[in-house]
Structure formats: structure tokens, C-alpha cells
Design brief:
The chain has 4 helices and 8 strands. By secondary structure, it is α+β, with helices and mostly antiparallel strands. The strands form 2 sheets. Strands 1-2-3-4-5 form a 5-stranded antiparallel sheet. The protein is elongated. The N and C termini lie far apart (about 65 Å). Residues about 185-195 have low confidence and may be disordered.
Length: about 220
């Protein structure tokens, strides 16, 4: 792993453990998802004239024009959406530093989401039907879970999408989390021990001063 300090957008200079990108198969996932949404919308629009025909209501030329124009506009929006999928995919990147998980994404506005290791409770794999069809059984999403409001409740803070070898990366992230939290625990224990030593020393000084005062 590369551990040199590097400037991260919105974060500053930190030691990078690893940087990675979503697999290019994630583009296919986005295209399929976008297509399914618009197929559903177009089917809903196509139902309107069928309802009128079945109900034996008058289907006017004006209504037909509205449906055609709306459908045409939606096709244009669909094509524009497909075009924007590619730069959106290129905007996504992930970084693991010595302190946190960093997620960069955003087409018009570049956003940097930071999740400190101290807030993370677990990393969970998610492999949907489309994920398995496009990328196989080891392609999917890693959810970064943090503690919720209630006891023993977690919720996904961020998602690392389009990950090939999702099981391997999940185990790697869990290993880093365990290591970082272990180091934090060692640091906390050291600070506590140091504080106790200082307190004990102060008590000894106080006792000595009392002895000197009693002899005067």
C-alpha cells in the first residue's frame, strides 16, 4: 500500500493507504438502472390512451399531441441522462487514509464525503440482482456503517459502489478498521496511564509538603 502524504480534495494532506475507483462495469449498472426507470415512466404514459379506449371515452387529438410531445421530451431527457452517466462515473473515487474513508463524487458540484474510522461500526457487502448479472458474484457495493441514534443501531453513512472483488475489499477494510481502532485504543490506554502516573506523583508531592509543614 502507498503510504506517502498526498493532498486530498476537501481534506488536506494525509497519508494514503490506498486509492481505488469503481469498476467500469458500474457504468453498465447505471445505464440499466436509468433505462428501467424510464421504461416504467413511458409504460405509465402509454397506459393513458388504453384507459380511455377501454372506458370508451373520447380520446381527442389534443390529448394525443400532449402524449406525443411529452414522450418525445422524455426520450431526449433519457438520452441526455445516458450521456451524463460517463462523466459522473469518472467523478467517483475512493481513498483510505490513516484516519478516515474518503468518497469523492459529483458531476456539477464536486462533493467529498469523509467518514472517520472512529465513527465506523462495520462494512457490509451488498450484491443486487443486476450487480450479479453484470459483474458476477463478487461485484457489488460496500456500505460504510456508523452508529445510529439507538443502542446497537447502525445506518449506512456512505456507499462504495461498483467494487470488483467486493468480498476481498470488505475484508481489507475491516482489517484496516480493526488496526486503526486498535491503535486508537493503545493511544488512549497510554494517555490514561500517563495521567494516572502524574496524579500519583502529585499526591506524593502533596504528602511530602504536608510532612515538611508539620515539622515546621
Amino acid at each position: 500500500m502507498n503510504k506517502e502524504k498526498k493532498e486530498i480534495f476537501g481534506v488536506g494532506k494525509q497519508k494514503i493507504l490506498e486509492e481505488f475507483l469503481p469498476d467500469r462495469k458500474y457504468i453498465s449498472i447505471l445505464i440499466i438502472s436509468w433505462t428501467l426507470i424510464w421504461i416504467g415512466i413511458l409504460v405509465s404514459i402509454a397506459v393513458v390512451p388504453i384507459v380511455y379506449i377501454v372506458g370508451e371515452s373520447a380520446f381527442t387529438d389534443t390529448m394525443a399531441i400532449i402524449i406525443y410531445v411529452t414522450s418525445g421530451a422524455m426520450v431526449v431527457v433519457y438520452i441526455v441522462g445516458i450521456i451524463f452517466i460517463f462523466p459522473y462515473y469518472n467523478s467517483i473515487s475512493y481513498a483510505l487514509t490513516t484516519q478516515e474513508v474518503v468518497v469523492n463524487k459529483g458531476l456539477l458540484i464536486k462533493r467529498t464525503k469523509i467518514v472517520p474510522y472512529r465513527n465506523i461500526t462495520n462494512f457490509v457487502m451488498r450484491r443486487g440482482i443486476i450487480d450479479r448479472i453484470i459483474g458476477g458474484n463478487n461485484f457489488g457495493t460496500i456500505q460504510v456503517e456508523t452508529a445510529g441514534q439507538g443502542p446497537q443501531q447502525s445506518h449506512p453513512e456512505q456507499r462504495l459502489v461498483g467494487i470488483m472483488d467486493v468480498s476481498g475489499y470488505t475484508e481489507k477494510l475491516r482489517g484496516i478498521l480493526s488496526k486503526m481502532k486498535g491503535q486508537a485504543g493503545i493511544t488512549a490506554d497510554t494517555e490514561t496511564a500517563s495521567s494516572l502516573d502524574e496524579e500519583e506523583l502529585l499526591y506524593k508531592i502533596l504528602d511530602t509538603l504536608k510532612e515538611i509543614s508539620s515539622k515546621l
